[in-house]
Amino acid sequence: MIRRLLLLLTLTLTLGHAHAACPPVPALPSAAQQAAWAAKAPDRGPLWRISRDGHSSYLFGSLHVGKPDWAYPGPALRRAWAETEVLAVELDPADVGPALTAAGTPEPLPTALAQRVEAQARVACLPPGVLTSLPAVLQVSTLTLLEARRDGFDAGFGQDLMLLAWARADSRPVQSLETVAEQLEALSPPTADVPAMVDSALHQLRTGQTRAPLRKLAEAWSRGDMRTLADYPRWCACADTPAERAWFKRLNDDRNVALASRIVALHGAGQRLLVAVGALHMSGPQALPLLLARQGFTVEVVTPRQ
User: Fold this and answer.
1) 229 CA to centre of own chain
2) What does UniProt give as the signal peptide span (predicted)?
3) Residue 32 falls within a domain, yes or no?
């Protein structure tokens, strides 16, 4: 899933300047910029130390988009990396290819709605028909990620990808906490709800309403502002109907029990983990830190410092 989304985003690198209205392609930083950002990176995002069975792991609330200078870890995250030996993420992109092929072609959208998706894809300067192989929710998610470029954010600078690249460079083992099938199931609302949810997402994209909530989410994440993140369903304009609220719960809260269970198993096997999971999974009644505390972990806030 991640790999296919990144491929779609990469396709725009050669198309992004073809029209003034295209989402701007992020400029690649110079070597000097990279060195400066790496040397001066502050701590961003929430980080916890979780301890049980005589050793500690770390739990990092990640963001799936970022700015170029955000793709460098701050001092606390670097220490967490040095004190751990395995990276655990929601899903390793290396697991994706065969599973997506096995999943087959998704059910198509109604013709009129598919045409509106295609029209929004043209606004994003994507090649014709490139989204049709994705489930409907991922089609609009891809368009939302491209729209985020207008405010300087890009999926290529997300914290998960930064950590995965770091793991590859260090030959560090990577563990997936979910399977591709589990993620696809979580991402798929009931078939009857899909048209209304896609219609709402397209309306927000067309009217520019997706940008302010994404900016607010990113800035709250950067500060480690868990209070604002916990209120996300109230201000995101993405959980306003019963169907949207049910889907958000399924996508976020309902996955946390299984995620926590797998963290417990990996840690219990003696592995010192750096766990990177989307920061919204760290909030609410099923927040991962709470679930792990109930499993007997000592959970300590590392960042933001209290």
Assistant:
1) 14
2) 1-20
3) no
H/E element, 48: strand 47-52
Q: Tell me the residue range of the domain where 178 lies.
A: 42-303
CA distances for 200 relative to 184, 187, 227, 229, angstroms: 21, 16, 26, 22
pLDDT of 43-75, one tens digit each?
999 999 999 999 999 999 999 999 999 999 999
DSSP for 198-261?
Answer: HHHHHHHHHHTTTHHHHHHHHHHHHHT-HHHHHTHHHHSSSS-SHHHHHHHHHHTGGGHHHHHH
Task: Provide the pLDDT for residue 286.
Answer: 94
Give yes or no for residue 227 having a pLDDT over 80.
yes
DSSP state letter for 45: S
Using only the alpha carbons of the chain, give its radius of gyration.
Answer: 19
> CB count, 10 Å around CB of 172?
16
Is residue 254 within 8 A of residue 186, CB to CB? The reply is yes
Residues forming a β-bridge with 57: 50
| Domain count within the chain | 1
The helices-and-strands tally (H runs, E runs) of the chain is 15, 6
The answer to whether position 167 is within a domain reads: yes
Q: What's the CA dihedral at 130, 131, 132, 134 to 10 degrees?
A: 130
Average of per-residue pLDDT across 230-249: 93
State which amino acid sits at residue 220: A
CA distance readout (Å), 237 to 154, 205, 274? 21, 12, 32
Which two structure tokens, joined as six digits, stand for 95?
């697991």
Tell whether 10 is covered by a domain.
Answer: no
Q: Are strands 55-62 and 273-278 parallel, antiparallel or unpaired?
A: parallel
168: left (phi over 0), alpha (psi -120 to 50) or beta: alpha
d(CA 247, CA 189): 6
Question: What letter would DSSP give residue 66?
Answer: B
Report pLDDT for 26: 87
Q: What is the structure's pLDDT at 87?
A: 98
Distance of alpha carbon 287 from alpha carbon 181, whole angstroms: 22
Does residue 16 belong to any structural domain of this protein? no
**Does the pTM of the predicted model rise above 0.85?**
yes
